[in-house]
Amino acid sequence: MVKVRAARPAEAEDLTGLVMRSKAHWGYDAAFLAACAPELRIRAGDVTARRVVVAENGRGEVVGVASLEGTPPRAELGLLFVEPSAVGQGVGRLLYRDVLRRAVELGVRRLVIDSDPHATGFYRAMGAVPVAEPAASAASPAAPAAEADGTALVRFEAAPVPLADWARAWTGGGRAVHLGNVGEFNAQFADATLDREQRPAHHYACLAAFYSPYPAALVLPRPVPRGWTELVCRQLGWTGVEVYDGLLDADPGLAEAVRARPALAALLTGFGLPLVPWGRTRAFGRLAGRPWRDGELRYESKSAAHGLFGRILADGGHPGIVLPRQWRVDGRWAAARMLAARTRAGESTVLKSEHGVGGSGTTVLTPARVRAAGGARAVLRRLPRGPLLVEEYVGGAASRGDEGPRDLTYDGFVDEAGRAHEVGGAVMEVADGCYRGATVGPGVVPGWAEKSLTAFGAAVGRELADSGYRGWFDVDFVADGTGRLAPTETNLRLTGPSIAFMVAARLDALRGAGHLVRIADRVELGARLPEAQLDELCAALARGCAELGAVFVPAIPTGAFEPAPWLGVLVAARGREVLDAAEAWVRAEALAVGAMFGPS
Fold first, then answer.
1. Judging by beta carbons within 10 Å of its beta carbon (0-12, 13-18, 19+), is residue 188 exposed, middle or buried?
2. Which run of H or of E encompasses 522?
3. pTM for this one?
4. How far apart are CA 573 and CA 566, in angstroms?
5. What is the mean pLDDT of residues 529-549?
6. What span, in angstroms and rounded, lies between the C-alpha atoms of 183 and 172?
7. 58 vs 3, 9, 61, 63, 523, CA distance in Å?
8. What local confidence, expressed as pLDDT, does residue 330 receive?
């Protein structure tokens, strides 16, 4: 295993030799290398002054060297060279990330890199951004270019930042054990809209990989491909992640499955690390040694959340928020009568179950859809049985001279001390009431919505804290036609947007600030693939996205083995155009895998 350590003055001559061998690897002629040699030389006195570190393999051999030069807030990546025999083994990636980490500790906020033309692909893949400023001379110690041969250095920059404050507060700034108890959480609610076997939930349990920015262990109900965990760890710079999978066959109780294995339970709880679930359950409380508080999930109910929203708005102070009217009906025929009356009045209606995930149990009905279905009673016959809520439909695109986002969400959490923390806002993709994905990052939430969304979300967080709830939460909104937001529900658990926030926080700390991250729940595959071919596809998607300037992370691999195969994915970039292009390319390539099997 390769590790990074401080260089020693006595190694200066040997390190100079490594640098020259690395430079020669690109095919430069002897005359050019001789001209560069004075600038590339490392002297004993440089080792400390230039903050030189080396990468050392398990045999004690030095296989790379890097330096961090200058004073905050601006510094330079002075050296980054890898022994030719170690190229392609991740040494350069390890050294670059170490430089970025040390830059954060020193207070550097602008890291300048003058790259050899042959290394530009590497720096783009590491997240550095090309800039138009002139680069250093041909003989720069950073990475001399063959300017004498008609090529020039390429200047890049990175913006080193520490892990976000909210992410440090979420797990105490360290690693955590992640429990993928999605099915167990859903099973708490006796709702006809939720799958009894929780098969989809067990796929979504793969998101346990991303319950914090840097896991120590993942606990999953179903077996997951080994290639998946290896690629995720590579993309997010994780090492030493333990995976405990295949713990369940059908029953959704993951925490109980862990408790039924005393050795595993002792191991997971004995790490001394936070134990992070998808959502709180009584069984999780027993596993974690945390008392279960009766009623702590009461605002997972949509009618209870609606009542909470009404109480907050009754105090005033949220002019950018409007609350749609909601009625709880006694039975299905009462719902049919109300729906019929609203249809005759030309009003659209939302029918909701008390619980549900990802839009399950939520149906949006326009008058035209009700008539096309054969009337209100015909509509009700097709819906799952159970308590129903009838809600006023909030219509109209946001009116600010553009289309604007329709569905937004606020994410936060309440820590064990009862303090509410803001994580941020996101824009969701919702089709016919069903959640499809979300995007987080700088500038994603438009300015007209940001103040109202964060203020109201924070108010909900304070109320949840006072009610005794502890853990992650979100508040979902839809935009009306006048630039106001209507809150529709709370989710007292981790969510798809929360996963994107975790990955954004990790990538910002790993590669520099400014990542947009999109989670897409279902990317359709053109064919079911054996595990080895799925690994190959994901590796190819990662390479292709890197060429576009984006980062690809497979989020849900096990759906690829379903009769109608699909993947959940995360895509990250520093600009909306690159993000959109990368997502479109991933979707096209995923569908195209069926072509290898010939015409259907």
1. middle
2. strand 516-524
3. 0.92
4. 22
5. 94
6. 27
7. 8, 21, 7, 10, 40
8. 78
